[in-house]
Design goal:
2 domains, 9 helices, single chain, 220 residues, four-stranded mixed beta sheet, Glutathione S-transferase Yfyf (Class Pi), Chain A, domain 2
Length: 220
């Protein structure tokens, strides 16, 4: 069955799904939805995803799946190798905890529609918007770094010696911070794990700056 991913080169949520697709060895075509041009608000895309955000995944003739964690969960259940969650219940909960710090707590606060709302409704200028983004990005990294430090002997990835859902989410968050040119030197464990992940083609090839349409020197 054909697999189509609706996304945008800069979308960190799409980045997460790309990584999962690559890790699972699933071939897919990506349809670019330019968030900067407002293409997500078009009536044609509304029929794909009524929430009008990316990513959305269409497999065969089935309706689109949306929300990156739900999509990745589906991919893990339908293509169980390699697994993205550990076997032990507590380890699975730990991986999900780290993933949700990124995907459920931090990332929703810095997406374009929120940044635009801060500008349009509250008249925040660019320095104020960046302060907002830096605050929530840093809070997430502080929490993750503390959790990782407590389990420093757990392996070279977030949990063990194979990448999991937690690594997928952490990579998207740290690389997003790098796109915004934030100082992340205070989080050496997290950054080290991300750099280890990016040695793997499934992660590296999914990177926003390696997607069609990505500018050589992107502005946030």
């Amino acid at each position: 069955m054909a697999t189509t991913l609706f996304g945008f080169w800069r979308s960190l949520a799409t980045f997460r799904v790309r990584i999962a697709l690559n890790l699972k060895g699933i071939a897919f075509d990506e349809v670019a939805i330019d968030l900067l041009k407002g293409e997500q608000l078009s009536e044609s895309y509304r029929t794909v995803n009524p929430q009008m955000v990316v990513p959305a995944l269409v497999v065969g003739d089935s309706p689109a799946l949306t929300q990156s964690l739900a999509i990745i969960d589906y991919l893990d259940e339908t293509h169980p190798q390699p697994p993205l969650l550990p076997v032990a219940p507590r380890d699975r909960a730990y991986v999900r905890m780290l993933a949700q710090i990124v995907a459920c707590d931090a990332h929703p606060l810095i997406v374009p529609r929120v940044r635009n709302y801060l500008t349009d409704e509250f008249k925040l200028d660019e320095p104020a918007r960046l302060k907002w983004i830096r605050h929530w990005s840093s809070k997430a990294l502080e929490a993750i770094e503390t959790q990782l430090a407590a389990r420093a002997s757990a392996g070279k990835f977030c949990q063990g010696n194979a990448p999991t859902l937690a690594d997928i989410c952490l990579v998207s968050h740290v690389e997003g911070a790098r796109l915004f040119k934030f100082d992340i030197t205070a989080y050496p464990i997290a950054v080290g794990i991300v750099d280890e992940c990016l040695k793997i083609d499934a992660f590296a090839l999914a990177h926003p700056l390696r997607q069609p349409g990505a500018p050589p020197n992107p502005a946030h």
